[in-house]
Amino acid sequence: MNHRHLLPNEIDLLVDGEAGFGVAPLRAHIVECDECRARLDDARIVVDALEALPHFAPDSRLADRVMAQVPVFVPAHVAARDSVFRWLPKAGPARAAAAIVGTSIAGLLSIAMVWLASRGDAVVFATGLFIGRLQTLVLGAARDVVVAVLGESAVSALQAAGTLGVTLLVLGFLGTALGTVFALRRLATASSRRA
Amino acid sequence: MPHALDLANLPDADVVALALEGREVAHRELIRRYERPVFSLIFRMVRDRELAEDLTQDSFIKVLSHLDRYRSEFKFSSWLFKIANNVAIDHLRRRQLDTVSMDGSPHATTPDAVMASAIELSDASETALEEMEAKELGSAIERAIAGLRPEYRSCILLRHVEGRSYEEIATTLDLPLGTVKTYIHRARHELRRALEHTRE
Asked: Which of A6, A48, A72, A78 would you mutate first to test chain B, the one with the most B CBs within 10 A?
């Protein structure tokens, strides 16, 4: 039997349940030495009492009080991502279906763009034709309105004035309209102040 | 958007990442996980429930307001306990509280000084709060813990109440590993003596 009693730090090793290389001789000594075994038991009583100590609960409003003083900042990239996700369905299958439909539509549009780009001349011709047709329709309608309101002589005068004359006429009309709106607004404001 | 129930199973580092994305529910989850251990540590350090509530609140505010400083290679709980312990120790130092003993201050040298520094628990004029504190901290082991130096108290509570390893305690308290072992050894020794004294 080893007559040296265990040192305090060796008792601590056993209390902590260490399982290293040098622990086996310590355990063997404990089996044989009543005094060291009593010291170990005393140490374990303290540890057992400590490990049985409960956690205390703070006031239930602690979280609210803390969060009232903690600034919570949402980074820009997270806000953008959340905005996108808000438009997507929440359920998994619905989200998958939306992805499939969206991808399909995007694919079809891409194919259409490529097709149109490969037929550039035809697109330009068709666009010019469309714009010409639209211009004819708009000018025809405008002429009909002027003839109905001001007569055939007004139409002749406008045709004689040319583009510059028509532009001045349009600008004059817009300026008068805006001025009237502005004046009416000032009048309304002045009336409300007097009231 | 994460729900509170979803967060309960996430590791601390993931919850912290969500909190850094501005999810308040993640902040609250961190508080929910650690409010009891942090409060218990601080309460046993300062032995005043109302004060412990305030210091616990301060600890969480400090941690959650500076989450961007958390480094994921360390445990979040270690960082939190470090701040909580520092808050408690700073308070004790400011108030220059001596170790509190049911049987009087260990620095008292005369019978009169011992009586003057002893704490009476069963006082008829105790408030409800004091009565609750007495009930919570009145057991022999709690009174023995109160008799320890703050540094020993922190170490022994982190070791045996929070179940931290010596290495974690050393990291948490910024102490050398050898110092932690010494403090815990001395704390156990003093607690053993205190408990023997109460049994006599």
From this structure: A72
B23, B80, B161, B180: which to substitute to probe chain A, counting the most A Cβ within 10 Å? B161
Chain A closest CA to B86's CA: distance in Å? 18
Query: Of all residues in chain A, what percent carry a pLDDT higher than 70?
Result: 96
pLDDT in tens, chain B (200 residues): 555 557 888 999 999 999 998 899 999 999 999 999 999 999 999 999 999 999 999 999 999 999 989 888 889 999 999 999 999 999 988 886 554 544 555 555 565 555 555 544 444 445 666 766 666 666 889 999 999 999 999 999 999 999 999 999 999 999 999 999 999 999 999 998 888 876 65
- In chain B, CATH 1.10.10.10 covers 99-200
Task: State which residue of chain A sits closest to B160, comparing Cα positions.
Answer: A51
CATH code for the domain defined by B99-200: 1.10.10.10
Look at A12 and B188 and tell me if their CB atoms are within 8 Å: yes
B134-163 per-residue burial string, b: 16 or more CB within 10 A, e: under 16? bebbeeebbbbbbbbebbbbbbbbbbbbbe
ipTM of the complex: 0.76
Nearest to B144 by CA among A57, A9, A46, A45: A46
Cβ-based contacts of B192 with chain A (< 8 Å): 42-43, 45-46
Q: Residue B54 corresponds to which tokens in the numbers above?
A: 């305030």
The CATH number of domain B1-98, selected from 1.10.3720.10, 1.10.1740.10, 3.30.2020.30, 3.40.190.10? 1.10.1740.10
How many residues in total does chain A contain? 195
Q: Which positions ≥6 away from B158 have C-beta within 8 Å?
A: B41, B81, B85, B164, B168, B169, B172, B173
pLDDT in tens, B136-165: 666 889 999 999 999 999 999 999 999 999
